[in-house]
Amino acid sequence: MVILLAMVANAAIAAVADTARETRWAEQIVPQLVVGDAVWLATPRHARVLAIFTEPSVTSRTAVIVVHGLGVNPDWNLIGVLRTTLADHGFATLSVQMPVLAADAPREDYESLFPDAGERLSSAVAWLGARGYSRIAVLSHSMGAAMVNAWLAATTQASVGAWIPVGMFVPFAAAPRLPVLDVVAERDFPEAIAQAKVRAGQLKQDGCSASLGFDGTDHYFDGGAAARLAAAVAPFIKRALDGQCR
Length: 246
Description:
Elements (H helix, E strand, L loop, with lengths): L1 H13 L4 H11 L7 E5 L7 E6 L7 E6 L9 H12 L3 E5 L17 H17 L4 E7 L1 H12 L5 E7 L14 E7 L2 H11 L9 E9 L6 H17 L5
Parallel strand pairs: 3-4, 3-5, 5-6, 7-8
Antiparallel strand pairs: 1-2, 2-4
Helix pairs in contact: 3-7, 4-5
């Protein structure tokens, strides 16, 4: 009985996001924002979740929710470049803090956070919708892509019209119901490359969905690769959100 109670207690701990870690990041990030504004989302589990909203210089009713990977924040390296560069391409962006665990937590423990992540994603869609953004894409990296994968399989979001998973290392949780541009780096992790090959045969035949192998970089799209990635996915987002897919 003691062992069983200990196992239950450990499972409960694993299922809870490290909000203290998230708060520390918010305290560091918000005062230093140069591009974009901090906004706060409410979910059933959290009264305040940091997101960074960036408006384009042109009037737009299209937006991209940007979702970071394991154990980082909504302005981290690749994600910071994507949220600002996609705004330069004419899309409003909302980069959302996903739930995190302790820095030394193994990747497999993050699956317990998927319901929390789904609530944050739904809140992001609602926040954008309340401000007139009726056409939304989601761009997600690594663990963030796995979180979006589970969320899209479990919910129907009518305003979400396109998804760009980048470096996703899991299979599709359900057959895609919307256009998908599935991106994997040339020097990505072997697991991500292998899963992308499997998923290629499951994409919708809609004239937009495709697999995109991205040359000259690894899983983290360091250097100028992040800006190149934004430029590469922008035409797909525009076409999908404009309803040009069959």
